[in-house]
């Protein structure tokens, strides 16, 4: 039997550098949610890629950032843990149209944290969004600066969006994985329960449909997942921080929520390969992300199950 390279790979980096886009591109399926808002990813999402000679088990971590709330502290913790647990860390950074020729202060701090948390774990640097750079020679100074700042196992410029350089990322990571038996069946894509993905798909569409002020206070919870009928019925609550956010999210005559619902439904149907019915309620739950209770109820503490405990329906907007 041929030896397989098998192991866990943590994708780590600042918010919004393109970690979820990279994961989705490598997997060829859209699991992690993507939006233009920083801190879109709040949980570690496991995606599995099986090749004839390797199995990559990816952890997509929330972007590391300065903690401003309990939720932020939780995300930092998750990300550091992922780096510590993984066989290989892929450190993702991104460049602007005119790349600054050094290592950003924040990246330098993060790399220090990774080295402290897991000094022996090999780290591959991925410089994403190079499609934005017209003069590619500007990347040389960036690569040099990063190479001097940290003992990376490899440095790979890519464009996750355009699927450029992905094979090279995979081949560099593969070299660093231990030899082992596969951890998952070859057709496994993720270990996340379907209900988690459904809640994430709805949250993704909300982030896309709303502006700056709404997204950080949004949590989506599956209240009921009923597969007994011909068409599965999924009921979800969207928790927002303020009455004003609810107004924005619902939109004039429910137009925004309707759009969110039908786009999310299309993704769920594509994933499940069948028709589904989504019912979404918007509820005002001020400051849920500031208390342990709130985080637990939204599924951010104590497992990834996004099913809510029973609670009163305080503010409803059935679609
Ligand atoms: N131009 C360009 N944009 C990209 C590329 N990769 C990702 N983006 C964009 O960057 C934004 C952030 O991408 P995400 O994949 O959500 O970033 P992330 O690092 O997972 O973000 P967090 O969830 O906040 O940690 C989105 O608007 C993407 O479309 C790329 O290769 N080129």
From TrEMBL:
Belongs to the TRAFAC class TrmE-Era-EngA-EngB-Septin-like GTPase superfamily. Era GTPase family. Keywords: Cell membrane, Cytoplasm, GTP-binding, Membrane, Nucleotide-binding, Ribosome biogenesis, RNA-binding, rRNA-binding. It comes from Pendulispora albinea. Residues 60-63 are annotated as: G3. The keyword Transferase does not apply. CDD domains: Era (cd04163), KH-II_Era (cd22534). Monomer. Residues 13-20 are annotated as: G1. The lineage of its organism: Bacteria, Pseudomonadati, Myxococcota, Myxococcia, Myxococcales. Residues 308-319 have a biased composition (Basic and acidic residues). Residues 128-131 are annotated as: G4. PROSITE patterns: G_ERA, KH_TYPE_2. Coiled coil: none annotated. Residues 39-43 are annotated as: G2. An essential GTPase that binds both GDP and GTP, with rapid nucleotide exchange. Plays a role in 16S rRNA processing and 30S ribosomal subunit biogenesis and possibly also in cell cycle regulation and energy metabolism. It is found in: Cytoplasm; Cell membrane. SUPFAM superfamilies: P-loop containing nucleoside triphosphate hydrolases, Prokaryotic type KH domain (KH-domain type II). This is GTPase Era.
């Amino acid at each position: 039997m041929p030896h397989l390279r098998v192991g866990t790979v943590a994708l780590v980096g600042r918010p919004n550098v393109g970690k979820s886009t990279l994961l989705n591109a490598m997997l060829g399926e859209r699991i992690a949610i993507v939006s233009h808002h920083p801190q879109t990813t709040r949980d570690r999402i496991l995606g599995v890629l099986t090749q004839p000679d390797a199995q990559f088990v990816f952890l997509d971590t929330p972007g590391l950032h300065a903690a401003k709330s309990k939720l932020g502290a939780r995300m930092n913790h998750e990300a550091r843990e992922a780096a510590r647990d993984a066989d290989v860390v892929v450190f993702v950074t991104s460049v602007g149209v005119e790349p600054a020729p050094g290592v950003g202060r924040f990246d330098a701090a993060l790399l220090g944290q990774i080295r402290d948390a897991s000094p022996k774990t090999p780290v591959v640097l991925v410089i994403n969004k190079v499609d934005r750079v017209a003069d590619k020679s500007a990347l040389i100074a960036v690569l040099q600066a990063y190479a001097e700042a940290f003992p990376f196992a490899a440095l790979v410029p890519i464009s996750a969006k355009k699927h450029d350089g992905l094979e090279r990322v995979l081949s560099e990571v593969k070299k660093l994985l231990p030899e082992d038996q596969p951890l998952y069946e070859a057709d496994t894509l993720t270990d996340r329960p379907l209900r988690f993905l459904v809640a994430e798909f709805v949250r993704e569409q909300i982030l896309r449909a709303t502006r700056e002020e709404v997204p950080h206070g949004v949590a989506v919870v599956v209240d009921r997942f009923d597969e007994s009928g011909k068409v599965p019925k999924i009921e979800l609550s969207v928790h927002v921080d303020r009455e004003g956010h609810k107004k924005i999210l619902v939109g004039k005559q429910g137009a925004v929520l309707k759009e969110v619902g039908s786009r999310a439904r299309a993704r769920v149907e594509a994933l499940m390969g069948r028709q589904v019915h989504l019912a979404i309620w918007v509820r005002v739950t001020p400051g849920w992300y500031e208390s342990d209770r709130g985080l637990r109820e939204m599924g951010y503490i104590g497992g990834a199950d996004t099913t809510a405990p029973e609670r009163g329906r305080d503010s409803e907007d059935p679609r």
